[in-house]
Amino acid sequence: MDKSGILDEVKLFKGITDSLQDDLISLIIDDSIDRILAEVNSMLDNPISELPNSLTFIVRDVAIKRYNKLNSEGTKEDSEEGRSFKWENSYLDEYRNILANLGRSYRARGIARFM
User: Fold this and answer.
1) Residue 79, SS3 per DSSP
2) How many domains is the chain built from?
3) Are 31 and 66 in contact (CB under 8 A)?
4) How far apart are CA 44 and CA 50, in angstroms?
5) CB 40 within 8 A of CB 1
6) How far is 10 from 5, CA to CA, in rounded Å?
7) Domain annotation covers residue 31
8) What is the dihedral angle through the alpha carbons of 86, 56, 23, 65, rounded to the nearest 10 degrees?
9) What is the pLDDT of residues 48-81, one digit of tens each?
10) What backbone torsions phi and psi does residue 80 show, to the nearest 5 degrees?
11) Among 36, 60, 61, residue whose Cα is nearest residue 49
């Protein structure tokens, strides 16, 4: 998985043009990968050590969600100067079906034939 590409995409989404927050965003990306990998591995008999590149968009989206929630960790709602924000309970809720299908595809590898 190309972490530097994900970093560039997160910065593009957030309109960040400097490199002052690169370390913070990289930490968020690494932690997001770990959380997604743990979720996938909880569905597998044989854990995988790396996420497939097809899940890059989930890592990016989760990293953006986590970046948006900086300084509001642990809250479900936040209101500031007439603007109100409400966060989901889990960063991975909308991706559960995709992750479950990935778990099934890893589980269904190979065919055994007995004669």
Assistant:
1) strand
2) 1
3) yes
4) 13
5) no
6) 9
7) yes
8) 0
9) 888 889 899 999 999 998 898 887 666 667 777 7
10) -145, 120
11) 36
Query: Is 29:3 a contact under the CB 8 Å cutoff?
Result: yes
**What is the amino acid identity at position 69?**
K
Partner residues linked to 86 by β-bridges: 77
d(CA 59, CA 28): 10
Structure token pair of residue 87: 């966060």
In sequence order, what are the beta bridge partners of 79? Answer: 84
Q: Is residue 79 part of a domain?
A: no
pLDDT over 70 percentage in the chain: 79
H or E stretch at 60:
helix 56-68
| Residue 80 located in a structural domain | no
Residue 26: which residues within 8 A CB-CB, separation 6 or more?
3, 7
Whole-prediction pTM value? Answer: 0.78
Residue ranges with strand state E in the chain = 77-80, 83-86
- What is the Cα–Cα distance from 90 to 104, expressed in whole angstroms? 22
